[in-house]
Amino acid sequence: MYAKCGEIDKARWLFDRTDKKNVVSWNSLIAGYLKNGQPKKCIDLFQEMQLGGFKPDDVTVSNVLGAYFRSRLVDEAIEVFNLIKNKDKVSWTTMIVGYVQNGKEEDALNLFAKMLAEGVKPDSFTISSVISSCAKLAYLCNGQVVHGKAILLGVDNDLLVSSALVDMYCKCGIIKDAWIVFDMMPSRNVVSWNAMIRGYAQNGQDLEALVLYEKLLQQKLKPDSITFVAVLSACNHAGLIEEGRIYFDSISKRYALVPTLDHYACMINLLGRSGCMTEAIDLVNNMPHEPNSLIWSTLLSVCAIKGDIENGEMAAKRLFELEPLNAGPYIMLSNMYATCGRWEDVASVRSLMKSKNVKKFAAYSWIEIDNEVHKFVAEDATHPQTEIIYEELGRLIKKLQEAGFMPDTKLVLHNVEEEEKFASICYHSEKLALAYGLIKNPHATTPIRIMKNIRVCGDCHMFMKLVSKVIGRPIILRDSNRFHHFVGGSCSCKDYW
Ligand SMILES: [Zn+2]
Ligand SMILES: [Zn+2]
User: Rounded mean pLDDT of 121-128?
Assistant: First the structure.
């Protein structure tokens, strides 16, 4: 009773003075600590219990599982999960949610498949976690299958599930389907609205995002911090500086919320891109929070777009202090120098990177074909159909060159020989994924969907635009920053990314 009511210290006091402990009393206390947000205590108690000669039952193990995940001890959780003899809905779901919370979405999906194979019926909580995994990975086919499962189980109208579905379709770039789910929801909360508004903003439909925000206000719902991130990023993409200022001010003045670092980052981006760099710097210097790496990296990327080396150097230096092992800022600064031919500075950034032993982030792209995911790195040669892929890519490049396209080699950022630049830029991972998509589905009219873990480079962006025109088929590319919908030779991001 004490444990359940949050009086965990009283529970412990009594427990320690009980001579006749049994599994039930141990379980009560372990569950109490978990509920009280003390996972470490849970784990300690679990070990104490075993040392005391008590045999944990499935209830104990289920609770300890959650504790391990909250302490981010995934391997330990797996070990404990395997101990459970009769795995019920709760233990399966705890494990799936734990995987999702720890960034192991692939494992979550695999475990979900096992859960179904064992005949355990998932609930809305399980389903929504699995849909979030599909969203994160942009696995549309998998997501659609789980959507089907949700309908069969009768949980598709559940608020948690349908909000996750809206988010999933948006993150897969299928705004139309996201809207159908959103429109059919019997009730909506601010989470569902946020998913749809953010989806519009991420997919370049900025005005739709702002219109939907106004509709949310008409419903007398109170926007939250996440709503404003979506609204400000819509203003950002659309270059609506005045509207952005008004929305930003309304966060504190009208809704009595404290603007977060995310909001400031949006504003710095908007101001910087609109040419108000001084105002952007003032905002960084006068904000109530200590500027973090998000703020500095936002400023750095704005400076890179604007070619503002002075402020770029300042932001990069702050990032080198805050995240000395993150390759991104080094590469960005070195790119800025390279763009204006300052090769000596490029070399000094490179040697700084080397001296600090900074590893570059491996870039890769992936494409989903018939429910299967195919991953590519630049100049990939591991795929079983490598030869055909390169042939197809060669054909595409030839077609584009006939149409007057030349690869933008200045974006390959070493001062190496022209030909070498040409080779590496032609085989960036997203180009290989695109070629594979075309081979597997040559005659379809549906969009080709590609995902990439880092930002798309300028050459690939141009390439995708032209391919969408030459082959007359839309391409959707999701990179780490946003969505690019390439149709008929132009992109939804309006070349702003
Ligand atoms: Zn590229
Ligand atoms: Zn784009």
Answer: 94
